Amino acid sequence: MIWRWAQTKAAGNLLWLGVSLLLAVGVWYIAVTSADPIQQRRFSSVPIQFVESDAAVMTNSSARSAIVTVQGSQASLPRLVEEIQVRADLSRLGPGAHTVPLGVSVEPNASDNIRRPVLRIQPAQIVVDLESIESRTMAIEIVITDPPPIGYRHDEPQLDIAEVVATSAASHMAQVTAIRGELDLSTSRSPLEQEVRLYAVDAGGGRLNSVTLSPQTVRVSARVSRRDDVRQFSVRPNILLHTLAEGFLFKDYSYDPASIFISGAPEQLAQLSDTLLTERISLAGHQENFESTVPILLPDDDLFVMGGNNNITVAIDIIPIIVSRQLDSINVDQFGLKGGFAVTIAPRTVSAIVNGPVALVDSLTAADIQVSVDLDGLAPGVYDLAPSIAINQGELSEANVSLSPSILNVEITSSAASDSEAEPEALLEG
């Protein structure tokens, strides 16, 4: 009966329908894989996620990352970078050495529903060492890393808890000698309260990061107050201004430090003024900026400066007094004129205004300033020329001098022309 049905027209149609579906699926698969071909890609250094054991702690592992080869569509591979997970399950293991297989999984992706990637992992398994977990209750030590500023003291820090529980592998716990926290009081001038993070240390003071603490922080309070046997004083340089040489000005000064801390009996400190002077600083012989290191005068030998440095450094600025002076009737010279020419310069004398330090300007005379015009290479004619200036005072230069007038009228003639003009005048006189 089945054979008869297979010979019918309906059976033939159904056969052609099945063949058509297979062809359609094949064409669709070829089209899809041509547009988005299947590729393989290696992902290196994929971190291994360890599922921790409740009975032991891992102290060593033959690998911490793995290489994963992924096969999938070209479009889906780049999106798998953050979706690949490699795990080592240690949850049921106890102390000892164990060979643990690595499992690989890929998080589902909406665009990857049809073609799931095929994974390969290297290494396929790792060796881990587990040790028994040890816990110990230990006291907390607070270390003052920086004391309060000079003139302040602190009391012993107070903690809201006295102990913490330290947990780690037995071999690591054997190295723990103390649980510490650090407190910085370098900017504290009043009582403070703050949270301090704790850490475990070995005999050499090195931190043991493998040790877990519970709790990890402690609340610390410390009372910071002013010391009654230390007092801060301002200091002032004792500069003798009357010793400054004539012709100079005291412009400014600065010094360091501006204040000091002095230690002594409270009743002695209470009798001192707020400002202390240094030894006298003479300005005699100084005509420019200079520095001087001088001690601070203390009224009592029982007092001493905190830190041991009883000196301050003073920087003093001294400038010369600048004056102006006019010198008249300075002769104008000439140079560079060849023989056979005559020259007339108008005017033949000029005035000079000199600006500079009073000590230099006051000693100048007209003879110390030379004014001249350069006639080298000039042909007969009339010229307006700016003269050059030379000054005999070495610390003054042309920049310190201005002339009046600043431009001179110069006429150059040939000697023959001058003689021919002079002959008719001689005949008239005869």
Give structural notes.
By secondary structure, the chain is mainly beta. The strands form seven sheets. Strands 2, 5, 8, 10, 11, 12, 13, 14 and 15 form a nine-stranded mixed β-sheet that branches. 14% of the residues lie in helices and 51% in strands. The protein is flat and about 140 Å long. The chain has helices at 2-6, 9-35, 170-173, 266-270, 358-361, 415-429, and strands at 38-51, 56-61, 65-73, 84-89, 96-101, 103-106, 118-122, 125-146, 152-154, 158-159, 163-169, 178-184, 192-201, 212-214, 217-222, 224-226, 230-240, 248-256, 259-263, 275-282, 290-295, 304-305, 311-320, 322-335, 341-346, 349-357, 369-374, 381-385, 388-391, 401-404, 408-414. A hairpin with a 7-residue loop joins strand 12 (178-184) and strand 13 (192-201).
Low-confidence stretches: 422-430
Helix coverage percent: 10-25%
- Count the DSSP helices: 6
Mean pLDDT: 83
Tell how many strands the DSSP assignment holds. 31
Major β-sheet annotation: 9 strands, mixed
Question: Which descriptors apply to this entry?
Answer:
single chain, 430 residues, mainly beta, 5-stranded mixed beta sheet, 51% strand
Fold blueprint:
Elements: H1 2-6, H2 9-35, E1 38-51, E2 56-61, E3 65-73, E4 84-89, E5 96-101, E6 103-106, E7 118-122, E8 125-146, E9 152-154, E10 158-159, E11 163-169, H3 170-173, E12 178-184, E13 192-201, E14 212-214, E15 217-222, E16 224-226, E17 230-240, E18 248-256, E19 259-263, H4 266-270, E20 275-282, E21 290-295, E22 304-305, E23 311-320, E24 322-335, E25 341-346, E26 349-357, H5 358-361, E27 369-374, E28 381-385, E29 388-391, E30 401-404, E31 408-414, H6 415-429
Parallel strand pairs: 1-4, 8-12, 17-20, 24-27
Antiparallel strand pairs: 1-3, 2-8, 3-7, 4-6, 5-8, 8-11, 9-16, 10-15, 11-14, 12-13, 13-15, 17-19, 18-23, 19-22, 21-23, 24-26, 25-31, 26-30, 27-29, 28-31
